[in-house]
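Prompt: May I have another protein with tokenized structure?
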Amino acid sequence: MIVGEIYDIIMRSIVYTMDLRGYSDINLRRKDLEKALKTKLSHIGNYSLNAKTASTKNCENMIGAVQIPLGVAGPLKIISSLQKKEVFVPLATTEGALVASVNRGSKAITQSGGTSVISKKVGITRAPVFVVENIIEGEKIMKWVKDNFNEIKKIAEKTSAHLKLLDINPWMIGRNLFLRFKFDSQDAMGMNMATIACTIAADLIEKKTKAKLVSISGNLCVDKKPNMLNFIEGRGTQIWADCVLSKEIVEKILKTTPEKFADVVTRKVYLGSILSGSIGANAHAANVLSAIFTATGQDIAHIAEVSSVVTTAEIVKNGLYVSVFLPDLVVGTVGGGTNLSTQQEAFSILGVAGGDRGKNSQKLAEIIGGAVLAGEISLIASLSVNSLACSHRKLGRGGK
């Protein structure tokens, strides 16, 4: 059967199986696909998610769900101005050894008294691009935007009671004018909220000036792409986390020495990252971030930007100092995939479910920072004694 015929079958199932509640018959669509492809999708069809919610708010042409193993690491002690507690961290992954590694790092941190975490909410950004007549006209429009910020703010915030416009930062190159809007979206990740608000604001700017909107996203947001702008200015929430591990804990739990650990950080994390032109410098922050993002229903594509993490280590009087800096952590505890039932249960493990005027998403960001620190500590320790391959073989990645 050719691709076009399969497409027609799927589209017919969408049209013919709409019930009065307004969402598709997922089972019928999947059966049509099984028939067209002459295959069985019995596991994909076995799930506990709310079909109405998932098929109307999260996924079009839904045929079922895929399953990813979920593990838990911890307890991990977090110390910040918002929380002081030991948490268990849910990690959804298919990579053997990852959960065990974060668990070992969490043990080392917690037995050392915990990780201190500082968080700063920067805000979610959206940057529409306009075309202007020339640079003189562009300068006039930038001045109009600055002078009429309160009017723009008022109309943008009408789109959501949970959204506040913080700033509009302009860039101009040739006839192209970029306006980088920054919003506080409280406990929501806020990208869709920002897009809707920017669309209304852009309409006002077009009516009041000679600027013409080209695209509601001009790639200066910067959303879901590795970039230096978010690394320098921040986006979402910025996180700093650190701890001091005693020599005894480094040797007993991590099976290495502070000297070997620091040497790997210098030669691998610092120099290797410089030579490769990496944005950030870390061992495997994306591993931990993607596992938590998947478990809690975050937009996984944001891993492209949020994994620009910097890890540092140095020998100090009391042992080994280790830190991580996450300049761009875009997460939420309400909206999108966070509302799915399994993801809600993951939030209940973390103790940050639902909205709390922005505090829950900030607490989540702090826990993620601590988990990244734990993952960095364990992997770097393993690399320092060349036990990485052995660990993967033992935990199912490298075979027998």
